[in-house]
Design the sequence.
């Protein structure tokens, strides 16, 4: 039996742990630049606020209902997530950490799964203050569905879908767009074909599914029929690509500002790449205009480059990224967002030397990068950086309602009047 | 201004090996001493003097372990009607009392009308001697 454990309204719940005054009050958490709603407490969900709603559209609702608004505090959420995952690692044998607030657990053939799930829920609640739900069934895809309904209808936050009858009951109830692995694109297509629930999809024949939805679509359908196709990934695989992007606090066409931003993202990405002992051979850069402004059409400009020699050298990655930016940048547009993605990784010592690569220079550069990372790790992040990167104050992210980093910075720990 | 950056230590290739080499241990780790369960432990700073009798004063940092179940006489961080409080917990005949540990010794009896729950049990106080 496979379980999916999912934290309820995770970001909002993290804020609440340190704000007991907001226990039953409505809370929302906003995306990186205070743009859109990315987490809602139950009270806000009941008001009909959808995920991703731009905050300017609900200004009135916020003031009328006295909704507490938070900027996203990923330092805090990351720490609380680590605590929860640590509890799980010490409690269950087979675990896949799926996202910041979700984990798959393989209960194998245990007999007292419901009891064990209830224990886990109360332990996580007591130790961290975060409410979680657990959905259990025979496959990953079905456990996701079980979790979906565990949150909605189960009084104790556990839902166990074991018999065919119960599974059928719930897959008839779930909208196809809420099925794991289906997504927005397929759901539109499926609605057109008269397929509205997971149950409808399981009744289609394999050939039709394979022809219209590829092999992963077929695997999803098998999983809905109770046949395991997706195994738990219990060991953490190194990341396959690194993405770094941000939203500008104000739309901009200032080339220098965008250039500095891209340089900084490239440097951060290169550092992460070195930390996982990899080199990359593909760099992509993108700049997007503001899709919420009607005066400006929505442009997404991007370019990519394949490097001759794989690298994790900050200055090489920056200079290649800036070459791409040069090509895609159009001065007439105002940009909302910029970012970089590096991909096609290989492990450092499995990486072949290029025939024309300058070995002694390569070794020198490796030492330089090593020193850079070492100094930054000891005297603080970003103590040493390239001059083309941005410096403090160049880029002010809008985070007007940021809560303290209660668990990671001494200056910001919870303060209590006694 | 220069600050000394400790760089990687290289093992000496010449001379005599240190007889202590096989016995080296990492230095004392305060986390290990103060924190029994890191996933459930939080640090909290206090202001006020309602708990001076328990040697807790303004500016002190409390180590709070949420995994412990509160026992009679424990110092706890609790929520009372939406606010954090640090009090001594007294349990007698199934009644719960919150006690301030100063000269007034205020005692609050918990009743069903109050919103009350224990946030965590205070296990250590970090108190700086010279302020």
Sequence:
């Amino acid at each position: 039996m496979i379980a999916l454990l999912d934290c309820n309204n995770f970001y909002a719940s993290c804020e609440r742990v340190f704000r007991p005054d907001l226990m039953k009050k409505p809370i929302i958490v906003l995306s990186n630049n205070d743009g859109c709603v990315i987490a809602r407490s139950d009270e806000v969900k009941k008001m009909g606020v959808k995920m991703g709603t731009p905050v300017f559209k609900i200004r009135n609702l916020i003031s009328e209902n006295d909704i507490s608004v938070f900027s996203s505090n990923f330092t805090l959420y990351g720490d609380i997530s680590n605590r929860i995952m640590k509890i799980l690692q010490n409690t269950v044998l087979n675990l896949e950490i799926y996202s910041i607030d979700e984990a798959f657990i393989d209960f194998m053939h245990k007999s007292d799964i419901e009891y064990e799930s209830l224990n886990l829920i109360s332990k996580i609640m007591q130790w961290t203050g975060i409410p979680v739900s657990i959905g259990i069934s025979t496959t990953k895809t079905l456990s996701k569905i079980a979790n979906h309904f565990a949150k909605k209808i189960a009084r104790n936050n556990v839902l166990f879908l074991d018999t065919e009858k119960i599974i059928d009951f719930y897959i008839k109830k779930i909208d196809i767009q809420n099925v794991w692995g289906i997504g927005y694109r397929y759901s539109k297509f499926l609605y057109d074909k008269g397929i509205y629930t997971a149950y409808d999809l399981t009744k289609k024949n394999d050939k039709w599914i394979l022809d219209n939805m590829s092999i992963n679509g077929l695997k999803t359908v098998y999983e809905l029929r109770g046949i395991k196709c997706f195994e738990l990934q219990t060991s953490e695989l190194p990341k396959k690509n690194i993405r770094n992007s941000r939203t500008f606090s104000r739309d901009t066409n200032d080339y220098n500002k965008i250039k500095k931003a891209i340089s900084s993202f490239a440097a951060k990405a290169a550092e992460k790449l070195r930390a996982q002992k990899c080199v990359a051979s593909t760099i992509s850069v993108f700049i997007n205009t503001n899709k919420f402004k009607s005066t400006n059409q929505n442009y997404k400009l991007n370019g990519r480059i394949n490097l001759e020699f794989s690298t994790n050298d900050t200055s090489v990655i920056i200079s290649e990224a800036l070459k791409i930016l040069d090509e895609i940048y159009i001065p007439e547009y105002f940009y909302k967002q910029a970012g970089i993605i590096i991909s096609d990784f290989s492990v450092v010592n499995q990486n072949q030397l290029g025939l024309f690569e300058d070995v002694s220079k390569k070794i020198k550069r490796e030492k330089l990068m090593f020193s850079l990372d070492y100094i930054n790790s000891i005297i603080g992040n970003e103590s040493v950086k390239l001059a083309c990167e941005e410096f403090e104050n160049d880029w002010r992210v809008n985070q007007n309602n940021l809560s303290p980093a209660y668990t990671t910075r001494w200056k910001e720990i919870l303060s209590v009047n006694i | 201004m220069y600050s000394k950056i400790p760089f990687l230590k290289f093992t000496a290739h010449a001379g005599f090996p240190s007889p202590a080499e096989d016995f080296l241990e990492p230095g004392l780790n305060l986390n290990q001493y103060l924190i029994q369960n890191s996933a459930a432990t939080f640090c909290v700073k206090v202001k006020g003097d309602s708990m001076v009798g328990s040697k807790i004063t303004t500016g002190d940092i409390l180590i709070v372990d949420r995994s412990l179940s509160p026992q009679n006489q424990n110092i706890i961080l609790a929520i009372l009607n939406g606010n954090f409080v640090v009090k001594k917990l007294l349990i007698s005949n199934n009644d719960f009392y919150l006690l301030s540990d100063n000269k007034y010794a205020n005692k609050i009896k918990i009743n069903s009308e109050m919103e009350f729950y224990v946030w965590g049990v205070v296990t250590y106080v970090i108190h700086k001697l010279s302020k």
Notes: The two ends of chain A are 48 Å apart (CA to CA).
